[in-house]
Amino acid sequence: MIQTKLLNDKKKAIQSLETIVELKNLHKSFGDNKVLSGINLIAKKGENLVILGRSGSGKSVTIKCMVGLVHADEGEINIFGEDITKMDAAILNEIRVRIGFLFQNGALYDSMTVRQNLEFTLKHHSPYLSSTEIEEAILEALDNVGLKEAIDKMPSELSGGMRKRIGLARTLIIKPEIILYDEPTSGLDSITSREISELILYVQKKYKTTSIIITHDMACAKLTANRIIILKEGVICSEGSYDELEKSKDKSVRSFFI
Prior knowledge:
Elements: H1 2-15, E1 19-30, E2 33-44, E3 48-53, H2 59-66, E4 74-79, E5 82-83, H3 89-96, E6 99-102, H4 114-125, H5 131-144, H6 160-172, E7 178-182, H7 190-207, E8 210-214, H8 218-224, E9 227-232, E10 235-240, H9 242-246, H10 251-254
Parallel strand pairs: 3-8, 3-9, 6-7, 7-8
Antiparallel strand pairs: 1-2, 1-4, 4-5, 9-10
Helix pairs in contact: 4-5, 4-6, 5-6, 7-8
C-alpha cells in the first residue's frame, strides 16, 4: 500500500510539470519500410523517460526525428512548445543548441585529445567565450563525469566506459536542457553499465535535465526511468513505471522483464 501511494504521488508530481517534448501522430517510412506509425508521447521537465523496443521498432528513429537528423513524414514534434517540423534550418539550430545527444559509441574525434574534443564542441556552440571560460567549462564537465585526469588523453587510450563518460562530458559542456541518450550502456560490463546509469541520475538531479533514454539494458531502465514507454511495430503499445510494466499481463510487455 505504501509503495503504491509513493508511485501515485510520483505520477502526480510528474504530471504537474511543464511539458518539454511532445510528439503528435508521428509517422516515418523509409521506402516501403514503415518505421513509425503514429507515435504520441510527452516528456516533462526534469523527467527521465526510457523508450524500450525490439530492434527495428523505431526507437532511434524517434529521437533522431526530435533533433531533425531524420525528417518525419507526418505529425508534430513540439520541443519547448515549438513545432520543429515547421522551422527553417537557422531557427532549428537555435533549438538544437539546447539539446544534447549522447551517441551509442560516444562519437569522439579520434584525432583529438579529450580536451580538444570538449573545446571543439564548446567553441561551436559558444564562440565568444574567453580561453579562461573555456578551460573552466572543460574542467567542470570532466569533473561531473569523474575524469579530470583524462583531459590530455587520446580516445584510443580510453576504455569503453571512459569513452561513454567523455561523450557525456562533451554533451554536458553546452548545458543542455534536454539530453537524448542512445543506448548509453551498450557494450559495457555490468559494473560499468551501472556507473553510467548512476551518472545519468546524477546529471538529472544536478542539472534538472529532461532526458529520453533508448536502451535494451533493463538494469539501466530500472535505475534511471521515471517512466517507460514500449514501442512495438512503430506504435506505443504500453506505458508506465518499471514496476507497473513488470507486472503487465501482456506477454510481449513481460518479455522485456524476463
